[in-house]
Amino acid sequence: MKPKALSLAILMALVCITHTFARINNPQNLDHFIVDHPQNILRDDTLIIALPDTLPQTLSATDTIPADLPTENKDTSGFPAYKMTKQFVRDFGHTSVDVAIYPFAHWQNRDYLKAGILLGVSGLTYATLDDPIKAWAQRTRNSHSAFFSNQLQLVGQGYISAGIVASFEIYGIAFKQKKARRVAVLSAESFLISTGICTVIKHLAGRARPNTEADHDQWYGPQLTHKSQTSFFSGHTTAIFSVATVIAIEYKDHKWIPPTIYTLATLAAASRIHDNKHWTSDVVFAALLSHYVAKTVVRLHEKMGNKFYLAPEIAGNYNGLALLYCF
């Protein structure tokens, strides 16, 4: 079996194992997300606007919204039915814009302070650590470290991150697990947004890679063709952290999952420094940015409870459609 195929097969197995253990440890799979089906959202915070006489009179006037109202994912897992459909494409467009404006719309002073500190760390790394860490990494590398680094860098390949997303989606479909499909959708959004930003900035910044023997502060500006001038920032690190962060958040109740997934992502990022493909500041900035994007994507979906739904309403002397608004 080819290395790429073997890597994908192993990752699919790990996804199945991770989700299975998570369900064993927490069989209820309860979470704070709202089930996005009309029959499940009649709560105190639901506004009902009746549209009378729009349903056949044959329905019983004593009935309420049927418990067996058709739904594609009828289970009690407590998670919305996330799917890779046309709706995903539409939501992705909105999410991309929302990620960009999120700091202006939702951040508090403490959030700006945190962002300032993290950007300061990136700047300090760029100013003081890029050259020393490059020198140390190249001085200490050997055949053994090269072997492990070569395996770890595969984790950061875009097709591996895409494979992780696909594995969650396939698992969710096969075993009717809405949480797995939720992870797939959120990871896909995070991955696409993060890598999209990375690709644009890479070609606008034009930073020289360390293996060109250029100085760490050599920037050529916008260009499209020279891979040797696309060091800032690391695409491998961006890809794996954009997916790893979503998994860590969604499975945060299982203590071993977040540290395991973050350790794997960090090792994959470090391999790019070891292989002399990126400066340390490239990797640090990539991890911070993709982590931010992933967390924001998750938060935005948490806020998607404000939605309209149409559902049958049968009560008293009238029947019709109810326009439901959850807030």
The spatial strand order of the largest sheet comes to 1-3-2
Number of beta-strand segments: 3
- State the helicity in percent bands: 55-70%
CATH topology: Vanadium-containing Chloroperoxidase, domain 1
Rough outline: globular
Distance between the termini: 51 Å
* Level-1 CATH class name: Mainly Alpha
Structural class from helices and strands? mainly alpha
Pfam families: PAP2 (PF01569)
Signal peptide: 1-22
Keywords: Signal
Domain Phosphatidic acid phosphatase type 2/haloperoxidase: 180-298
Protein model, in words:
This protein has helices spanning 3-25, 86-106, 109-140, 143-155, 158-175, 178-205, 235-250, 257-274, 280-302; strands spanning 46-52, 307-315, 318-326. With 327 residues, it is mostly helical. It has a 3-stranded antiparallel beta sheet, with no helix packed on it. A hairpin with a 2-residue loop joins strand 2 and strand 3 (318-326). The longest helix is centred in the middle third of the chain and has 32 residues, at 109-140.
